[in-house]
Amino acid sequence: MRFVVNCPPHAEPAELVDLAVAAEHAGWDAFLLWDHMVVDRDGLAIVDPWVTLGAIAARTDRIRLGTCVTPLARRQPQKIARETATLDRLSGGRLILGAGLGVPDDDFTTFGQSADPRARAARLDEALAVVDGLWSGEPFEFTGDHFQVERVRFLPTPVQAPRPPVWVACMLPQRAALRRAARWDGVVPMKLDGDDVSFVDPDDVASLVAEIGTMRGSLDGFDVVVNPGFPGHASMADFAAAGVTWWMQSMGEFPGWVDELREIIVAGPPW
Q1: Is the pLDDT of residue 22 over 90?
Q2: Phi, psi values for residue 218, rounded to 5°
Q3: Is the pLDDT assigned to residue 233 strictly greater than 90?
């Protein structure tokens, strides 16, 4: 099992860079940033993840870096392809792209975009196909309902081959989200408990691992990334036995979260 910090973007960019550098020094395996435009229309501070990750890449040597998650439905896939290929080269092949439908709805509706889940899902699937095709460096064209690409070669390619890993967020028990994740390189699951979002447990993980394994035919090279939730929710050994490959430490945006997350980071991964 490997260990990842998934960090809110609600701090000064320099603070986030320092957290990532501390994570590398403390032995963490990856440092990811949330990707938002709007969380609170009254003005909660948010920094751009891609600019910040470029600074992190220049200050680190080993730790993997990326987003969790980028709502591709509100982005232009050609811009994401260019940003991520550049970041992968700048970092020497350390990029992870986390993708998903995204929350909250204000991320979309504030700027006149649809927050309809079906429309977002369709745009997400097409955007992933476009990003992957552009990453290939081969002549590529695409005609979809939401995105069109005339024949083009997009260079330079990312360092990682055949592509940087793509982790897809899903909300259990949604089957379409699981099918989407199975087409890519990893899954980041949460679950709906009524109207509330909650953490998955080892039984949830074992079930989704079996289902994705059936869909793919093999779990070779596929990552299962779990936020274990509150202390005592379930043991690391139970999650590992269920098939988890990455253990995620995250943090809410409450006052004082930066100092609390820094303490967790400096203490090192919980192996």
Answers
A1: yes
A2: -160, 150
A3: no
Give the side-chain half-sphere CA count within 13 A for 219. Answer: 15
Angle at 54 (CA atoms; ends 53, 59), nearest 5 degrees: 90
Task: State both tokens at 117.
Answer: 């889940």
Q: Domains in the chain, please, with CATH?
A: 2-267 (3.20.20.30)
- Which residue matches tokens 């379409």? 176
* Inter-residue contact 140 to 133 (CB < 8 Å): yes
Give the three-state DSSP class for 72: helix
What would the pLDDT profile of 189-227 be if each residue is shown by its tens digit? 999 877 678 899 999 999 999 999 999 999 999 999 999
Backbone angles phi and psi of 5, in degrees to 5:
-95, 125
Phi/psi class of residue 194: alpha, beta or left (left: φ > 0; alpha: ψ in -120 to 50)?
Answer: left
Which pTM was predicted?
0.94
Q: Evaluate if residue 41 carries a pLDDT over 70.
A: no
Q: CB within 8 A of 179, min separation 6: which ones?
A: 215
Tokens of 89: 């080269």
Nearest residue to 106 via CA among 182, 174, 188, 39: 39
Contact 33, 253 (CB under 8 A): no
**DSSP assignment, residue 235?**
-
